[in-house]
Sequence to fold (799 residues):
Amino acid sequence: MSQLEIANAAAVDPVVAASPTPALQPPADELAARRRKFILATGALGLGAATAPLSRRTYAQGKAPMNVAFWMFENPQQRPWVHKRVKMYMEKNPNVKVDFQAFTLSDLGKKLSVGFATGTAPEGFITGDWLVPTWLSKGLLAPLDVVKLGYPTMKAYTDDYPPAFVEGAVIKGKAYAFPLWFYGFSNYINTRHFKEVGLDPIKDAPQTYEQLGEVAKRLVIKEGNKFVRQGFKFAMHSSTWTMIQFNPILAQCGGAYFDKAGKCTVNNAAGIKAMTIRTSIVKQHGAEDPADSIATNPLPGMDWLKERNSMFLSHPLPLAAIKSQNQKMFDERYFRAARAPGVEAGKGFTTSYGFNFVVSARAPKDKQEVLHDMYRFIMSDPADAWTDTAPFPLARKSGWSDIPEVKAFADIDEILDARDRGVFHPRTIVFSELADAMHKAVQKILLSNQDIKTALNEAAAEVDRASAAAKKA
Amino acid sequence: MINADLGSTVAKPSRAGRNPAAGRVRASRKWLPRIDFRRRIQLWGMALVLPAILFFMVFKFGPMAWAVGLSFTSYDMLSAPAYVGLENYEALLADTVFRESLVNTFVYIAGSTLLITVAGLALALAIATGVPGARHSMMAMFLTNLMPLIAVCLVWRFLLHPHGLVTQLLLPFGIDRVDWLTDSRIAMPMIILVTVWRFAPYFMIVFLAGLLAIPPDYYEAAEIDGANALRRFWLITIPLLAPTIFFVVVVSALLSARIFLMPYIITGGGPGNATRVLSMLIYETGFSYFKMGRAAAISVVLFGIMMVFTFVQMRISQRGEQVYTA
Fold:
């Protein structure tokens, strides 16, 4: 029986198939053909193995070892969550090692600048949205591939974020930033203090800055020259906070920091009106002490958390922060977030700002691709983001605001409203100079009793000098 | 014998004829110039100090020269420096913040130098003349120098709060509020006082060493002649302590010119620009505004100010040496 006959019999007769096959030797030419096939297959495998590292790294992400440096800002909630997600990403991609480092927000920009100057900048980092123009003006950010970030088209990407974010991060049709959180400010009210002085925390929540001053005045408790309790508190300790608080007032007064020619116009009539409103809580209503926070440099909002003032304009306050600073307030829930006052009633809004993932333009292509992959992974679980970082709202509109935990969060409507209605930090490459000049102007007016017009003239001159230098550079 | 054996392994030219091995070495180094012993010692000395010289060239004078060069450029740390000539210096002349900071720096140097010198001398005199308790509190006073500067600044910021401990201490005198750090007229004197609190005890040690070096015979002779304590102080202590006083003045002035952390932490340069000094402005200009060329120009100006003090110090020390050698 030939081998072919045995094979045919096995195909039709299972008994034959099951029976032991007699030891048969294939013909010599068949053996040679098999040997050739084996050699060819082995050769193909070897060739494949040899050329695999030369192929595009996208296909080798799970294979080729890769070190990526990634920096972000320090924050008690946001940093641990991002770090957790980065660790999870590394577990899923054992070949990728992320050198994760966090710095204080004010140090991060300086560290990055020095890093770029010395060639030690990370390949990826998180930056404040107001700094994106600075990085872009130096060509330091790589354009992002929104498809790799999970969006089918650029339009789907831009539709998912607030317009002002898109305006700052999308240049000539290319996206340069992938946002995480974005938030506005609300007027945090101590409802117990309100009730103590006969005010209704909901009905009497101030709608205008004028009302804010009047209400704050009623809430003040003083012993001689000393404020035991301030009615309202503007943070005085840093230029960034000065900008956050002055920016929406200026916008609501119809003012702007710059005209079309780039000249600083903060000292015009709208600017003077805005600064008059900004300083009215002290000068007109006597409801706050501007000197105490500059002397002690507390955390923003610490006085409110410790009930040393009754109202404070704050970004969404984490419950953990309230609990850690004031257990009684947390337990009895005598606080609420109300809409920030406006120049006109019902039209109040605040500054909105956020944080973005970006990729260094100096990063090699393969690392850029890994960073895209990592950013997409980090942002792939919005529910996890909310669990760990509530109440900081995500920038994206889709995929998270209808999560039950989000919907059940106290004051979430106000938090989202503040985010969506807010105006954004001025996007200028002289932002730091502008912020410092405005901060000094506020100090001169409130602490040294300088005339508003004079102080704003000095600030505008300082900013114009900085703009002229930037233009020359 | 041992010496002879050892000698045979050393190639000494004078013994080359007697030592065949040494002769071979000598023959193989014919191309080397003949160097006499004194010259060799000099070369060895230069070789030994060369690492230190190189270290200073690379890590001290190199960066200084680079900073001077940088002051003629526009450099934002992100792009390559571009030569702009004297533009940075011209911009400084027109910059009101620079002018205010320059004035503040001079006020700070003058105030802190004067008070450090007076307080340091007073403390040293208290110890040297045996004021009760002074010697025992010397260690406590010197502790201010051992505390980290940042801790000192933070503590003083709280102490000088409008309703802080310092104000509380003044309550019995009817003073219930002073804006120590937020009143532009008071903020700079407060920074100066904190500096004096911190550094005067250090200079107290310097003064104490100077006082103990004055021979007691002079005081005894003056006392016998009927000079009272004040006259002994003016006519014996001050003249003999003059080199030490000059040293303290110059060193504390240099120290004050470079001060950064105190105004930066305690007041942040405010209110307005009331406590902003040049070193702070250098930091802000360089690392907040990314204008490294402008920051380098300010640092060159500050360097010039410090060079004046250094020159004065050198002249004074030379004069002192001449007095002692005469």
Q: What stands out?
A: The interface with chain A takes residues 74, 76-79, 82, 84, 87, 91, 94-97, 157-158, 160-164, 176-177, 179-184, 267-268, 270-274, 284, 287-291, 294 of chain B (CB under 8 Å). The first strand of chain B starts at residue 73 and ends at 74. The mean pLDDT of chain B is 86. Chain B has two domains: 2-83, 90-325.
